[in-house]
Design a protein that fits this description.
Layout lengths: L7 E5 L2 H4 L26 E2 L17 H15 L3 E5 L2 H4 L10 H16 L3 E7 L5 H7 L7 H15 L6 E5 L10 H6 L8 E2 L7 H25 L4 E7 L2 E4 L4 H24 L5 H8 L10 H6 L5 E5 L3 E4 L3 H6 L24 H15 L3 E5 L17 H20 L3 E4 L22 E3 L11 E3 L1 H11 L7
Parallel strand pairs: 1-3, 1-12, 3-4, 4-5, 5-7, 7-9, 8-10, 9-11, 11-12
Antiparallel strand pairs: 2-6, 13-14
InterPro entries: GH, GH_1_N_CS, Glyco_hydro_1, Glyco_hydro_1_AS
Family: Belongs to the glycosyl hydrolase 1 family.
GO molecular function, one term: beta-glucosidase activity
Length: about 475
């Protein structure tokens, strides 16, 4: 039951969800910094002008900015071989469009990287993880504007150069395919079509803006791959996708066609461009039927063709079903990514259907399609954890979730999938990206921080901490 020798076990986080220190070290305002906290039943809000007396979870988050050495020591205690984290664009370029980087920001991440290397933990760095500089949203509506490419590449050049010889693995954009949905416009791209306070899940959606933004991101990613290889031939640059596994609800052919078409847009479009270096033909019909026109300039096709990624990474949390029957579509939502519920699956506290076998299925699909090394860089269970009277956090439900997914990853390895690593999401409790909550906890480490802004940020090991430590020590052989 063991995994390949050298398999990268670890964990994953994002700067805007754990760092805090939102105005320290010269950091500028990023899009998450203007988002309020939400709950399981109410979404977070976007407030383009910071409101007095309003709680903004990212401002302090879990104070990793001041406690990163303590946190990385805990990761090392678990035995991490890899730590996936992101670099906040606004720590390096506070507004996003400066010509010279902020030295304090570069130094912070250099210290963080050095702390990882001290424990022989391989950094896996996400360059842009749901945190576009808000200045660029106000100035150009972010990725709708082609000038964003140069700003992004300037950011890449600064960090590729500074961390040469210390970082090997990079990811260009986190969950880039989130922008194929309305929710991803602001979350992933920083696109805000009307600058006013609004509910995070009820923004004005302009699909053409999202897909134009994706085109600019594809170009930026391809050019970043080229730049990385020129700066350091040892650099490996990957893409990062949401793997939103779905099945036809019934064996009706129309349900299968519906599922195939939804898979094309959500699961394959962005990775087809980033892994194969060209737009897939199936998007021609989608663009036409949805009145989407992508402005491309001469030479764009050549840029994409010259910049395919070196490896593929994804998040995997859930699956859903698709149906062509409009009445069944109205009957219920499968999870945050839509679809309809699978009658054979249970769901998390937040309604995300739990499907370990879907991970094996998806890894085989990805491998067959691209034949690139694969990392699962997000996977986990958001749940209501509590501290018992004896001080323990008994999260056996999380252990069950992770165990079942690791078992299916191993099945995929036996199937012949070239799986290189596994970094479960939120290895330490942090702020939820979709709702702005602390209550939705994923970590192996409990953080004393709550949705009302109280808590002393102290850390304590959960039951899952010791379980995952054993998993890593045995290279996945002991999942008991």
């Amino acid at each position: 039951m063991s995994f390949p020798k050298g398999f990268y076990w670890g964990g994953a986080t994002a700067a805007n969800q754990l760092e805090g220190g939102w105005q320290e070290g010269g950091k500028g305002i990023s899009c998450p910094d203007i988002c309020t906290g939400g709950t399981a039943t109410t979404s977070k809000r976007i407030t383009p002008v910071l409101e007095e007396g309003t709680f903004y979870p990212s401002h302090d988050a879990i104070d990793h900015y001041h406690r990163f050495k303590e946190d990385i020591a805990l990761f090392a205690e678990m035995g991490f071989k890899m730590y996936r984290f992101s670099i906040a664009w606004t720590r390096i370029f506070p507004n996003g469009d400066e010509s010279e980087p902020n030295e304090a920001g570069l130094k912070f991440y250099e210290d963080l990287i050095d702390e990882c290397l001290k424990y022989n933990i391989e950094p896996l760095v996400t360059i842009s993880h749901y945190e576009v500089p808000f200045h660029l949203t106000k100035k150009w509506n972010s990725w709708t504007d082609r000038r964003m490419i140069d700003c992004y590449l300037n950011f890449c050049k600064a960090i590729f150069t500074r961390y040469k010889g210390k970082v090997k693995y990079w990811l260009t954009f986190n969950e880039i395919n989130s922008a194929t949905t309305a929710m991803g416009a602001f979350l992933g791209q920083g696109i805000l079509n009307e600058i006013k306070p609004m509910d995070f899940m009820d923004q004005i959606d302009v699909p053409n803006n999202r897909f134009q933004g994706l085109h600019h991101q594809f170009l930026a990613s391809a050019l970043a791959v080229k730049m990385a290889h020129e700066i350091d031939p040892n650099y490996q640059v990957g893409c990062m996708q949401i793997m939103a596994t779905s099945y036809g609800l019934t064996c009706q052919p129309s349900d299968q066609i519906e599922n195939q078409q939804k898979n094309h847009i959500m699961n394959w479009f962005c990775s087809d461009v980033q892994c194969r270096g060209k737009y897939p033909n199936y998007m021609n019909r989608y663009f036409k039927e949805n009145n989407i026109t992508i402005h491309m300039e001469p030479g764009d096709d050549e840029i994409l063709a010259a910049g395919p990624v070196d490896f593929y990474t994804c998040s995997y949390y859930m699956s859903n079903c698709q149906t062509a029957d409009p009445e069944k579509q109205k009957a219920g939502k499968g999870n945050i990514l839509g679809g309809v519920p699978n009658p054979y699956l249970k769901a998390s506290d937040w309604g995300w259907q739990i499907d370990p076998e879907g991970l094996r299925y998806s890894l085989n699909e990805i491998w067959d399609r691209y034949e690139l090394p694969i990392f699962v860089v997000e996977n986990g269970l958001g749940a209501y954890d509590k501290i018992e009277e004896d001080g323990q956090v008994k999260d056996d439900y999380r252990i069950d979730y992770l165990r079942s997914h690791i078992e299916q990853m191993h099945e995929a390895v036996l199937d012949g999938v070239d799986l290189r690593g596994y970094t479960p999401w939120g290895c330490i409790d942090l702020v939820s990206a979709s709702t702005g909550e602390m209550a939705k906890r994923y970590g192996f480490i409990f953080v004393e921080r709550y949705d009302d802004g109280t808590g002393d940020f102290s850390r304590r090991r959960k039951e899952s901490f010791y379980w995952y430590q054993k998993v890593i020590q045995t290279n996945g052989e002991d999942l008991g």
